[in-house]
Design a protein that fits this description.
With 252 residues, the protein is of the alpha+beta class. It is built from 9 helices and 7 strands, in the order αββαβββββααααααα. The protein folds into 2 domains: 106 residues, Ubiquitin-like (UB roll) (Roll), CATH 3.10.20.30; 116 residues, Fumarate Reductase Iron-sulfur Protein, Chain B, domain 2 (Orthogonal Bundle), CATH 1.10.1060.10. Helix 3 runs parallel beside helix 6 and helix 6 packs antiparallel against helix 7. This is Fumarate reductase iron-sulfur subunit.
Amino acid sequence: MATPVMDKVEAESAASPYITVTFRVRRFNPEVSAEATWEDFQLEIDPKERVLDGLHKIKWDLDGTLTFRRSCAHGICGSDAMRINGRNRLACKTLIKDINPEKPITVEPIKGLTVLKDLVVDMEPFFQAYRDVMPFLVTTGNEPTRERLQSAEDRERFDDTTKCILCAACTSSCPVFWNDGQYFGPAAIVNAHRFIFDSRDEAGEQRLEILNDKDGVWRCRTTFNCTDACPRGIEVTKAIQEVKRALITRRF
């Protein structure tokens, strides 16, 4: 005969939010094999949790060798960009329930950058392109005695491109970048845009000349992959077009 305690346990079990989800992860360890392989992991997990939570469960409970980057886990640092079900996303912002957990959830490294191990890629080419566009305020003269003031209208001109968190989701979603690692890529152009249109900056012409290079802004084919991939909602393609327009109009 059922007891109140048993009834309570059964009720709690029936109300459990957990479901069984298959994580299909692309694994690569250069010390073991030159080829990447797929490995499946079965998890009991709340669908309201994030893909990052699932990866943590795998690493902490099933396979401690799984390698991936993550830091703040709140969509601010940009460390955990990866391809999830074929799309560039931040693992910390992607809920399991939003990506059809009834089918295997595929997780693989972002494209266009050399894979070092599992989901970790070599970010140095990406950051070198970022450094090349001079992503800092350039002014002349002595240090100011007061804040360099700027109107709200002038600030709004480049507000969108200040949101970049350097996750590389946009750049590694670009088919031009996949085929030619010399292309600056959307993220570098976005960060150049942020200073080109800053009314306090004095190096706009220099940045435009850098992006006028054969590997610069003209390589963009306007596929909108970058805009779709951006986890911060930046209108990346629009920013690239504005830099192109600035290059054309500065000659007249």
